[in-house]
Structures are given as structure tokens and as C-alpha cells.
Amino acid sequence: MTVWLTGALGAGKTTLVRGLLRALGYTGRVKSPTFALVEVYPFSSFTLYHFDLYRLSDPLEWEEAGLREYFNARSLCLIEWPERAAGRLPAADVEIRLEFAADGRQALLQGRTEAGRACVRGLAT
Ligand SMILES: Nc1ncnc2c1ncn2[C@@H]1O[C@H](COP(=O)(O)OP(=O)(O)OP(=O)(O)O)[C@@H](O)[C@H]1O
Ligand SMILES: [Mg+2]
Q1: How many Cα atoms occupy the beta-carbon half-sphere of 84 within 13 Å?
Q2: CA of 66 relative to ligand 2 center, distance in Å
Q3: In angstroms, what is the span from residue 102 Cα to ligand 2's centroid?
Q4: pLDDT on residue 60
Q5: Rounded distance, CA 49 to CA 23, Å?
Q6: Which secondary structure element, helix H or strand E, spans residue 19, and what is its range?
């Protein structure tokens, strides 16, 4: 599954990924992958890849980095700044848009594929 995380600088994208990893039982350090482009978290039945493409200066760099192979049936890919790889990223199943709200953040979730819509419906119930 591919999840795009959008929203301004500091909107809480990395914090949301950290919360998800904690909920999955990961207790180690969760750092922002701004310099590495991707951090990898192996779980027993899938691998979670946390991308931050903020530093991608040219969408071509995405192809050169060979990151496409990380998108497969056994991966959950969460991508901050997907717009930096414009047109080259695998399509999102779910897009989560974070916005500043009075005392925290507001998250807008949109399912973009059948699987993604099922996920969002699951959360809503
Ligand atoms: N839901 C929240 N409520 C209150 N504070 C939050 C929330 N989410 C994040 N923050 C705070 O906002 C700051 C920025 O968060 P974070 O690094 O997750 O943003 P980001 O969207 O990943 O930014 P960037 O675009 O720079 O990668 C942090 O200090 C974090 O603790
Ligand atoms: Mg971040």
C-alpha cells in the first residue's frame, strides 16, 4: 500500500509516521529520513518504508535512486513530499493531508484506489 503524506513544513507528517510505528509496536528511534530519503522498518509480514523526498531537487533523481523496487505487495510505503517526485511515484492508495488546527492538527484522508477507500472506511467505523 502506498500512502502520500501532504501538508506544509511542520504539519506533522513525520510525527504521524512515528505514531503509526509506535502503534505497530516499534520502540526504536524514528528519525526523519530527510537526508537518507528513506528509512526502513521490517515487520514480520511486511516492510514499512518511510520516505521524505523534500531534498529531491529533480524528479529524475527518484529514478536514479532505484527506490521503485520498494513498492511491492509486501510493503507499506509512506511518503512525505510526494510532489517532489512529480509524475514518477507509484499512485497513492491513500492520501493524508495534514493541516494546522487550533491546538493540534487536522488530518484529511482520501482513498484513491479501491483498497485505499476500504482502508479509510475501516478507520471511519
Ligand atoms: N498532532 C500534533 N499536535 C501537536 N503538535 C504536533 C502534531 N504533529 C506534529 N507536531 C509538532 O510539530 C512539529 C513538526 O512536526 P513534524 O516534524 O512531524 O512535521 P513534518 O510535517 O514532518 O515537517 P517536514 O515537512 O519538515 O518534514 C514537531 O515539533 C511536532 O512535535
Ligand atoms: Mg517530516
Answers
A1: 18
A2: 21
A3: 20
A4: 86
A5: 16
A6: helix 13-23
For residue 66, what pLDDT is reported?
87
Looking at the whole model, is its pTM more than 0.70?
yes
Number of domains in the chain: 1
Structure letter (DSSP) for residue 53: -
The 10s digit of each residue's pLDDT in 27-54 is 999 999 988 899 999 999 999 999 999 9
Domain holding 32, by residue range, is 2-124
Q: Which residue has the cell 506544509?
A: 8
Q: Quick one: which of 2, 15, 5, 1 has its CA closest to 109?
A: 5
Ligand number with the minimum distance to the CA of 100: 1
- What CATH number corresponds to the domain at position 72? 3.40.50.300
